[in-house]
Every structure is written in C-alpha cells, then in structure tokens.
Amino acid sequence: MWGLETMEKIQREAITRSRAEGKLLYKAISDKDGNVFSCPATTKKIKGYKLVNSYFVDNSGFGTDDEPALTPANFLNKVRAGYFYGIISQGQFQVYIGEFKKL
C-alpha cells in the first residue's frame, strides 16, 4: 500500500505531465461520456473553473457496487455533458475525479 507522500508525489508528477501536454481538463461531450476516463491529472483550483463535485472512483477494475468507491460504470452514470473532469487525487486503487463548471 502506498504512503501519503508517495501518492502526493505521483499526483504532482502527473499534473506536471498533463500541463506539459497542454491538458487542463476533459470536457464531457455527452452524458455518460466514456472518454472521461482519459481525463488529465489536475488540481482542485483552476482559474476560470469552479469545482462543483468530486467522485471517489475505483480504478483497479475489481471494485463492486457495495464498496465506498464508485465502479467505473456507476461513475459514468454521473458524468454530464458540458462539464469538465480531472483527476484531483489518486491512490493505488482509487481516484478522486473532480467535476468542474466553467465560470
């Protein structure tokens, strides 16, 4: 199991890579847009955007409906067209995906 320092380091490195590639957030084209799983790593505060929700999502592929983390399928049911998504925190088996609205 990763320690907090390791998770924070991985997140910082992922944010740096995303920014270097010019990726800030992913905009959902439609409700339940499956491409949201390619959203970049980001921070909670982004100029011009407001964080309106965050989702705790399983990224191991082994999660079930009775666990605290949403399964990928359950998360997709929450994805809304026109909103922006980014990974705001990540661990070994789960991620927090932020849902943003453009100001």
Describe the structure.
It is a single chain. With 103 residues, the protein is an alpha+beta fold. 21% of the residues lie in helices and 27% in strands. It has 2 helices and 4 strands. The chain has a 4-stranded antiparallel sheet with strand order 1-3-4-2, covered by helices on one side. The mean pLDDT is 87.
Q: Concise description?
A:
This protein has helices at 4-20, 72-76; strands spanning 26-27, 49-58, 84-90, 94-102. 21% of the residues lie in helices and 27% in strands.
Q: Which residue ranges are poorly predicted, with pLDDT under 50 across at least 5 consecutive positions?
A: none
How large a portion of the residues is in β-strands, by DSSP E?
25-35%
- Domain count: the total is 1
Q: Order of strands across the biggest sheet?
A: 1-3-4-2
The count of strands amounts to 4
Question: What is the subunit organization of this protein?
Answer: single chain
The total count of helices amounts to 2
